[in-house]
Amino acid sequence: MSDQEDIVVKKENKSIENIDESDEESDDMDLKDSLKISSLKTLGPFIASKENSRNTVYVSDVPEICKDKPCMLGVDEAGRGPVLGPMVYGISYCPLESKKALEDLGCADSKQLTEEKRDIIFNDINTKDYATSCIGWAVEIISPNTISTSMYRRSKCSLNEVSMDSAMGLIQQAIDAGVNIAEVYVDTVGPPEKYQEKLLKRFPSFKITVAKKADSTYPIVSAASICAKVTRDHALKVWKFPEGLVIKDNAFGSGYPGDPVTRRFLTEHIDLVFGFPRLVRFSWSTAENALADKAYDMEFDEPDSEKPKFAGTKLTKFFKGTTKSGEVIREECRFFKQRHLGSVMEF
Amino acid sequence: MSITLDFNGKNIAKSNELELHFLPAKIDGDGEANVDHYFNNYTREATEFGRGILTNALRGYPLMGEKLKVPEGYSGLVLQETEKPISNSSDRQLRLTGVFKDFTYWNYDKVPSNGDPYRQALFLADVAQALSQPISEDDLEAEIVRNKENNKESP
Questions:
Q1: pLDDT(B54) > 70
Q2: Category of B137 on φ-ψ map: left (φ > 0), alpha (ψ -120 to 50) or beta
Q3: Are A18 and A99 within 8 A, CB to CB?
Q4: Which CATH number do you get for residue A182?
Q5: Do residue B38 and residue A152 have CB atoms under 8 angstroms apart?
Q6: pTM for the full model?
Q7: By residue range, what is the domain housing residue A87?
Q8: b vs e for A81-106, b when ≥16 Cβ sit within 10 Å of the residue's Cβ?
Q9: What ipTM did this prediction achieve?
């Protein structure tokens, strides 16, 4: 927390110094902007101020009315399939009676909307009075580094688990912030039944609907979807490579393996030892295959074998103690074997 | 077979100190690596797992590690062999490329512990000392006296 106070202090000093500088495009953006997302313009700087190898959660201010009146809450994700960049989970919520605001914003299937249209709606959600007074939202940016390391753990954690944890985490954040949730709508790619069951177990008091394409059916889900999608697009736009790569306009394509621009990015930026910059999800087969072809082979400790072997000592072992000439084979001492030690020289 | 270590104490003192990582992976390649930008950049402390525990990842594989010192009384040396020995019995020559006092030890998705082969291997230092330390006459006599007393106590 002390970190944050520090920043606030700096911010105040700064705003006094250059009070009439309105050069928003400059790199040393006012720090105030990087702490709060108050419009489309402040989204990029906020993301850029965070470490991109870790997850970032942003929760908007909760409109007072949402603490009072029963609310509906939508959940959706963006960037599940691409081999590049973060996956973003988003939620949005508003009172059941405020459906009109969502319609006025033009929330509809986010995939049907153009990028410009999504940007405009996102901006409206954060700036227009009729929206800020009743709609709140939150996103979690799940970094590609986190995705890779989760999927490559000794006990693998699938993308579905990562997703569900993120969704439930965001709902919990909304609860903790005081949102009076009554209904939850979730868009899913996988089978809805299992997901619904898991959510109901964790949040038994809500009316929960999990559906495919909920994005186009429920405006509150499309609002969540727009927040997630716009955040993901901006995360890619402001991506700074800690590896020091500079790519003009961050043009690495859609991130989908079929996109030729993305494919070129993947083949042109292979590091022989480390593979890719951590914008890439190493656990995607596209990335794995590219590395198998072009980078040094790398072999890891085997993950702990899942099937323990219970078979005891084989009987035949006792007949194997000598070589053909009758010499006794001595097994290496356990002390050395367990420690991976061996003799370099025969004495 | 003989192994020639082609350096002396002076070389060691003059050698440059290296920054090393002990990785839980076999890398089938040899050459320079951009360690600062692709790896050191991402090392983070993870105090939730204990003091000094570090996290990072290598090609997406999660790593957990810690900074380790070379045991007291020992020096860390990096040796290089320019010509691979033709057979097990041929002579070998090793050259000194650098020295180190500490290094970063990494496990694949496991908090470093006494179960790690590296830490286990270091037990050898104690065992080797116990086995090869010269024993004086006085030590022997003291030990004999101690044994006798022990035998008296137990009926």
A1: yes
A2: alpha
A3: no
A4: 3.30.420.10
A5: no
A6: 0.80
A7: 51-237
A8: ebbbbbbbbbbbbbbeebbebbeebe
A9: 0.80
CA distance A48 to A64: 29
- List of chain B residues whose C-beta atoms are within 8 Å of the C-beta of residue A296: 27-29
CB contact under 8 A, A242 and B42: yes
In a domain? residue B25: yes
Residue A4's pLDDT band (cuts 50, 70, 90)? very low
Query: What pLDDT does residue A171 have?
Result: 96
Pick the residue of B59, B81, B123, B126 with the most A CBs within 10 A to test the interface with A by mutation: B59
The residues with which B35 forms a beta bridge, in sequence order, are: none
Of A139, A151, A56, A148, residue with least CA distance to A92: A139
DSSP string covering B56-92, please? EEETTEEEEEEEEEPPTT--EEEEE-SS--SSTTS-E
DSSP A271: B
Nearest chain A Cα distance for residue B39, angstroms:
8
Are the beta carbons of A300 and B31 separated by less than 8 Å? no
Domain count of the fold of chain A: 2
Summarize the annotated binding site of A for a divalent metal cation as residue ranges.
Answer: 76-77, 187
Domain membership flag for residue A120: yes
Which among B24, B33, B124 has CB closest to A341? Answer: B124
Distance CA A147, CA A135 (A): 30
Give the phi and the psi of residue A210 in degrees, each rounded to 5.
-115, 125
Do the beta carbons of residue A259 and residue A72 sit within 8 Å? no
Query: Beta-carbon neighbour count of residue B4 at 10 Å?
Result: 10
Please give the tally of structural domains in chain B.
1
What is the residue type of A182? A
**Cβ A282–B37 below 8 Å, yes or no?**
no
Interface touch B3/A271, C-beta < 8 Å: no
- A342 to chain B: nearest residue by CA? B121
CATH of residue A270: 1.10.10.460
B99 has which bridge partners? B17, B77
CA distance B154 to chain A (A): 32
**Cα distance between residue A25 and residue A127, in whole Å:** 19
Q: Which residue reads 């020091």 in tokens?
A: A244
Query: What pLDDT, on a 0 to 100 scale, did the predictor assign at position A341?
Result: 82
Interface touch B108/A272, C-beta < 8 Å: no
Beta strands in A23-70 (DSSP E): 56-59
Q: Assess whether A268 and A227 both reside in one domain.
A: no
CA B36 to chain centre: 23
